[in-house]
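Hi R.,

Here's the chain you asked about this morning:
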Amino acid sequence: MNQTLELMQEHRSVRSYQDKPIPAEVLDAVLDAAWKGPTSINGQQVTLVVVQDAERRRKIAEIAGGQPWIAQAPVFVAIVPDFYKTRIGVEKAGSEQVIHNSVEAFAVGAVDAGIALGNIMTAARSAGLSVVPIGGIRRDPQAMVELLELPELTFPLVGVVLGYADQDSAIKPRLPRASFVHRERYQAAELPAMIAQYDAAIMDYWKSIQRADGQPWSANTAQYYRNVYFPQVAPVARKQGFGFDQ
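And here is the predicted structure, written out as tokens:
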């Protein structure tokens, strides 16, 4: 197995960082890995907002629900689906952009943001940095819009913390591989047994790292998915000019 595959298969999210800046050339190389990534129709409808100012990072940590590692690490990158940029191009071509009135735009933006996030994390870790992706900025997306001065037809979808680990994290076990990789068709029959197996495995993991508050995967997932846990996403997306009726 080559080093890239080993790196990707040993992912861990780190939540403790040194007070150590990232050299500009290293950060630029990481950002370029996302910049050069693929996007739907080559629309390049993703923008990165790189936040290094300590006070802004502190505010983002609060917006995300109290995540101190955002303030602790030297860099936070917000990954923003951006149909403001594409509209400029569409209008330059003498047309009117309508895709943002459709759920397809949000789907395209989310896919392309995910590709950018993956490239950033792999590039960062290959450069000796640690990472943790942050979905919590969707807890109060309007506050993120205002803090980052985002124009209409953009949305703060996800972010990622970059820095040098102060305390590394253990590798968390995953659901059985067969629950993730399905051959030829979706294989539903074995999922209940595999989920039960994983609930036991994750409890063993919590015990191994002395997390007394650790829950089975089923219970932890239910804690979130029994509610719409970030209810401001749709109203703020609509306020930003996105539509979901087509």
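One quick note: The chain has a mean pLDDT of 97.

Cheers,
M.
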